[in-house]
Amino acid sequence: FAYNRSSGKIHTTKICNPYTGPATEKQLAQQAKFKARSLNVSRWLLANHPSDTNPHGTDEYRHAQSLKKQYGLSNVRQVVSMYMDEGGKVTLPGNVPEAVTPTNPDTPNPGEGNEDV
User: Fold this and answer.
1) In Å, how far from its chain's centre is CA 89?
2) What per-residue confidence (pLDDT) applies to 50?
3) What's the rounded Cα separation, in Å, for the pair 56 and 99?
4) Which residues contact 111 (CB under 8 A, 6 or more apart)?
5) Which helix (H) or strand (E) element contains residue 10?
6) Closest by alpha carbon to 91, among 105, 103, 104, 81?
7) How far is it, in rounded angstroms, from Cα 2 to Cα 13?
8) 117: pLDDT confidence band, cut at 50, 70 and 90?
9) CB 75: neighbour CB atoms within 10 A?
10) Which of 87, 101, 105, 26 is nearest to 59 (CA)?
11) Is the pLDDT of residue 113 over 80?
């Protein structure tokens, strides 16, 4: 069983004839390729994820989050992996939205009530 928290769907599957022998050269090569891709995804997430210096994350990270919701995926890693090329460069589809920061009711928004008279 697998539960997708974003879409609310439950997926089930049954492995009828699991492979029990030693890993072949092709399987080892595929495992190495997956490991390298996973490391690149982790690096991208570390570079773009919200942090103390950038509490809302980068524009690319927020765009990846919106794509995650749009596609009904369970996490941002899936979106990043989907749009990562062999060299580790992530190119998200569409335009990355402009930086949007949440409004704080205690601080005035730029352009509101700041007219020079």
Assistant:
1) 13
2) 84
3) 9
4) none
5) strand 10-11
6) 81
7) 9
8) very low
9) 15
10) 101
11) no
**Does the CA dihedral 19-20-26-27 come out positive or negative?**
positive
The residue to which tokens 């369970």 are assigned? 74
**Which residues pair with residue 58 across a beta bridge?**
none
| pLDDT tens digits, 15-71 | 888 889 999 999 999 999 999 999 999 999 988 888 878 777 788 888 888 899 888
* 5, burial (CB in 10 Å: exposed 0-12, middle 13-18, buried 19+): exposed
Between vectors from CA 75 to CA 89 and to CA 10, what angle results, nearest 5°? 135
Cα three-residue angle 38-58-55, rounded to 5 degrees: 105
Both tokens of 8, joined, read: 């609310």
Structure tokens at 21: 């022998």
Handedness of CA 91, 76, 12, 23 (dihedral sign): positive
Q: Counting Cβ atoms within 10 Å, is residue 3 exposed (0-12), middle (13-18) or buried (19+)? A: exposed
